[in-house]
Each structure stands twice: as structure tokens, then as C-alpha cells.
Amino acid sequence: MAYYSIFPEIDSTIYSHPDRTLMNTGKDEILELVKERGTTNSRHYPSRILIKFKNEEVKSVISDTIGSTKFNDGTTKANLQLTTVQPQTLTTVLNIEAFAVSQSWHEGSGRYSNLPTSSNGVTWKFRDNSVTQSPWPTSSFQAGTTGSILTGSGLEKGGGSWYTGSGFNATQQFLNSDSLDIDMDVTSIVQKHSASLFAGDTYPTGVDNNGFIIKHPDSVEENTSSSFGEMQYFSVDTHTIYPPKLCFKWDDSKYDTTYANTASGKIKASGSLNVTLYRNKQEFNQNDVALLRIHVRDKYPTRTFSTTSNFLNVGYFQPTSYYSVRDAYTEEEVIPFDDNFTKLSADSEGMYFKLYMKGLQPERYYRILFKHKNDDGTTIYDDDYHFKVVR
């Protein structure tokens, strides 16, 4: 099974605070959902996040890597993922939403700390800049879209426009003890984008890929009497290994039991095992697709009289076996053990899996782990299986 991640083309935070409705933050290292207290009043003003992935990369993943039929078969997933920076004073239960943006926008090169404030890209008021001044719509929205903010809330209208209705939104709820990383299933939105990219379909079957807008529900944004704290995330301009990503997950596993039940190949249903990784070049180009193989054998083989070595026999994990990838330095789980999407495959040569290096940060070392469930329980194999991704 497979994971493949792509990274944003552009992203930005837009602010409704009166001092920042014309402020562009396209090159900030941080994206944030925050309600800021007014400078001259006690209102709290919300922000929103805009993020977009390249059409060419979305199209390439779907057509060349996954396959359009597989992508639309109901099992493949696309998740929008952002890594939290430093959450503060959050409420017990928090909800966020993501929608398909209905109009194009320009990232700009501004930063929150710029003096004077930069307005050469997307802001709360304009989707391009304060010179061209293409405003976000605030009324008379095109069919199937909405935007702005409630009249009478005391907040300035603007802040993006997006599609509404089934298939155009995703949600995530955070409880008090949850990780605040964003991980939203946006498969239906990406399918709308792909229908436009591949077939030229128009609303409601397909829509142009103008990215995603992430925001709190209207009821939270329009309650200007209180704040919910700060939710901050690394942007595409971060100098860390945690930029946002669109993660595609699908089933490409094939477990052929024909080979796993022969005299020369046997499923290891119990007992201690030696597990080695081979075809590991130790260093892979970021464009490589690596097919890595696993050699499985009994640690204490039963003594038999034979004309061939026991070690030449092919051993197999049970079908309930998985791989995981971690950053070797930070121990960040880059690809988790996933019962649906990281299952190992099996053929005549033994166990194997594919790893798409394009979805990993280059110039980093990674470590592979294996999980095997058999009659003795669950065992994690972590034996210094390292590799590096290079540019």
C-alpha cells in the first residue's frame, strides 16, 4: 500500500482585524487561525488560511502514480495535513472547516512583521493586491458559492469565497487532549478538482483548483465577544521539515498466498524471526520510486537434513504486516503504521513494498520499521534500516 505527499504551491493567512485587512502574509513561515482583540475596541477578529497545490502535481499523482480509476474507486484518500507550532489557551472542544476556494488568488511576498504593511498579494479585502484591487465577493455570489461574513457582526466583509454543499467541504474536531495537527479528509474536494482537470467538468461535478480555505465555523467567527486562542501551523515557507502537504493514500498491495504456502516458502505464523531489508541503496534521489524487499527467516530454525541451506527458503510475514517511516533525527512519524494503507505485499521472492521518495523531504535521513501480527502477538522490527533522500 502507498503514501504519496505533495507540498503547496502557495499559502497565506488573511486577517479581518481592522489594522490588517490589507496586510499580505504570503511569505510568512507561520499560518494561523486566531481571533485578535481590536486595537480600539473589545471585539475579537478572526483570521483564515488559504492554501493551494499545483495543478500539474495533483494531475500527475492521480493519472501517473495512482491511476484515475483507482483514485475514484471509493478507497483512495487525500488528506490535507498541517503541523501545529505552538497552540495556546484553547477551548475544550474546537472545530475547523475546509472548503474549495471558488476564485483565484495571488500569494504575494508580504510578512506579518513588515513595516510598512505589504499589500502586494491576497488579503482579507482583495484576492490579488491593493493596486489591482480585485475584491473578494461580499454579495451576489455565483451559483453554489458563498463567502464574506455575517452582516451586523461588526466585522468587515470579505475573507474569501468558497463552494458549499455536499462534496465541497471537510471538517475536523479537536478535543482538549488531542494533537492539534490538522489532518482532514479532503478526498471529495480533490475529486471535484480532478474532474475539472481531466474532463473539463464544471460545477457541480468539477471545479477549478483554487485551493482550500481553512476557517472556524461561522458561529465561532461571528462571536466577537471572545477568543478561542491561537492555532498556528508551519507554512510552505517554513525552514523546518514540517510544511503542509496533501497526502494521497491508496491500496497497491498484493499478497500472493500461492508462493507463501510452498515447500520453499512459508508464512511465519509464530516464533522468533530475523528480518533484514535488502535492495536498500542507502541513498535515493527524491524522484525515485524504491521497491524495497524484506528477507524473513526463523531465528532458530528447526534442524532438518537437507541438501540445500535453510537460509535459501523464502519466509513470509502474515498478511497482517505493515511498514512505517520515521525521520531518523526527530523521530517524527512521516508514514505511520496504517492498517489500510501501509500493508506489505508478497510474491515469489518474498515480502516487499514501494516507497515514493517524492513525498519525503530531501537531504534527510529516514528509518523504516515493520510491524508483524502473528499467533504470538504483535512485534515491531526496528533494526537500523536507514536511508537518505537527496536532491
Structural features, described:
The protein is mainly beta and 391 residues long. Helix content is 9%, strand content 37%. Strands 2, 3, 4, 6, 9, 11 and 12 form a 7-stranded antiparallel β-sheet that branches. A hairpin with a 6-residue loop joins strand 3 and strand 4 (44-52). The longest helix has 13 residues, at 187-199. The radius of gyration is 25 Å and the shape is elongated. The model has no long low-confidence stretch (mean pLDDT 89).
Topology overview:
Blueprint: E1 2-6, E2 10-15, E3 30-37, E4 44-52, H1 55-66, H2 68-71, E5 77-82, E6 94-100, E7 145-147, E8 161-163, E9 169-174, E10 182-185, H3 187-199, E11 212-215, H4 218-221, E12 230-234, E13 245-250, H5 257-260, E14 261-262, E15 265-267, E16 273-278, E17 283-285, E18 289-298, E19 314-316, E20 321-327, E21 333-335, E22 345-347, E23 350-356, E24 364-374, E25 377-390
Helix pairs in contact: 1-3
Keywords summarizing the entry:
391 residues; mainly beta; 7-stranded antiparallel beta sheet; 5-stranded mixed beta sheet; 25 strands
Radius of gyration (CA) equals: 25 Å
Measured by DSSP, the beta-strand proportion falls in 35-45%
Taken from the alpha-carbon principal axes, the silhouette is: elongated
Helix content: under 10%
- The mean pLDDT is 89
Segments where pLDDT lies below 50 for 5+ residues? Answer: none
For the record, give the distance between the C-alpha atoms at the N and C termini, rounded to a whole number. 25 Å
Largest sheet at a glance? 7 strands, antiparallel
The tally of beta strands, per DSSP, is 25
Per DSSP, the total helix count is 5
Class inferred from helices and paired strands: mainly beta
Run of helices and strands: EEEEHHEEEEEEHEHEEHEEEEEEEEEEEE
